[in-house]
Amino acid sequence: MEGNIAELGQFIGAGLAAIGSGAAAIGVGHVAGNFLAGALRNPSAAASQTATLFIGIAFAEALGIFAFLVALLLMFAV
Amino acid sequence: MASEGAGLEFHPMDQFIVKPLFGGDVIHWYTPTNATLWLFMAVLAVIGLMVLTTSRRAIVPTRGQSVAELTYGFIYKMVEDVTGKDAIKFFPYIFTLFLFILCANFLALIPMSFSTTSHLAVTAVMALGVFLTVIVVGFAKNGVGFLKLFWLTSAPPVMRPILAVLEFMLFFARPVSHSVRLFGAIMAGHAVVKVFAGFAQVTAAAPVAILGVVAIYGLEMLVAAIQAYVFTILTCVYLKDALHPHH
């Protein structure tokens, strides 16, 4: 096992950046869960709001994607 | 990155290597590669779905024609609902984006094929196209009034300059998240399939690995459709900002 400190830092940093994916999962679950809670209370209004649901999920997911991007940059670009 | 002698060898990223079709190592801009081949296949698939199935235009539609009509109606309604009725002139652009991404995502799921949308170069071009369209249309339609997009009149006056800076930065983060979302979802999904397939090297774990690959593959079918839908709906949202910048 040889290597250097910089490589070690890259791997640790990429692993830490993966925490962001978990955080994004919490965000997406929050959006979807609240949508379901609202949809079960008023099912007739649910169908018209699926577009909003997906926009909300996409925005919550965006920050997780930035974390993924940081991990990729650390692994392959730095 | 698999170390020697560890027993298991994983090469989940090898499937994304761009190779020339007819041998050689040098890739020029005109070299036909597996990437260009599968981009072309996606275009052919779109033509096959939309042109061939609707060429006869039967009163009682065939199966193919029904699929084409339902897809058309689905995206048409989405553009109308999200962007507004005056945005229908952008429908051909949005529908083209949707069909191309959908076909490219599904073609990438064929074993031994090449996943074109797992390359940032492909998704970034599409996202930058949307970004530039939003800027050009926004300024052409509203003039300097397009900058009101960054001035949130619903916020307290003290907060508005700070929010304007944030909104401005967020505006330029749009093409990044727009392109990396599609690229990340497809690339990560295909890499996971390959990692699960790698576990089949252990004989005892092979049945579990095969079941895992099947399950992830099913999930990837869902992701392929949802990511195409999300890319399209975000295009609609961004275009709404260009057409109606007043919050």
Number of strands of chain B: 0
Shape estimate of chain A = rod-shaped
Number of domains of chain A: 1
Largest interface: A-B, 11 and 16 residues
Mean pLDDT across all residues of chain A, rounded? 88
- Mean of pLDDT of chain B: 88
User: Number of domains in the coordinates of chain B?
Assistant: 1
Largest sheet of chain B: none
Distance between the termini of chain B: 49 Å
Helicity range of the residues of chain B?
Answer: 55-70%
Mind telling me the C-alpha Rg of chain B?
A: 22 Å
Features:
heterodimer, A: 78 residues, mainly alpha, B: 247 residues, 6 helices
Secondary structure layout plus pairing:
The complex is a heterodimer of chains A (78) and B (247).
Chain A: H1 5-17, H2 19-41, H3 43-46, H4 50-77
Helix pairs in contact in A: 1-4, 2-4
Chain B: H1 34-54, H2 63-82, H3 91-108, H4 120-142, H5 160-198, H6 206-243
Helix pairs in contact in B: 1-2, 1-3, 2-3, 3-6, 4-5, 4-6, 5-6
Structure notes:
The complex is a heterodimer of chains A (78) and B (247). Chain A is an all-alpha fold. Chain A has one domain. Chain A contains four helices and no strands. The longest helix of chain A is centred in the last third of the chain and has 28 residues, at 50-77. By secondary structure, chain B is mainly α. Chain B has one domain. Helices cover 64% and strands 0% of the residues of chain B. In chain B, helix 4 packs antiparallel against helix 5. The longest helix of chain B is centred in the last third of the chain and has 39 residues, at 160-198. Chain B starts with 33 loop residues before the first helix and ends with a helix. The chains are: A mainly alpha (78), B mainly alpha (247).
Summarize this, please?
Helices cover 87% and strands 0% of the residues of chain A. With 78 residues, chain A is mainly alpha-helical.
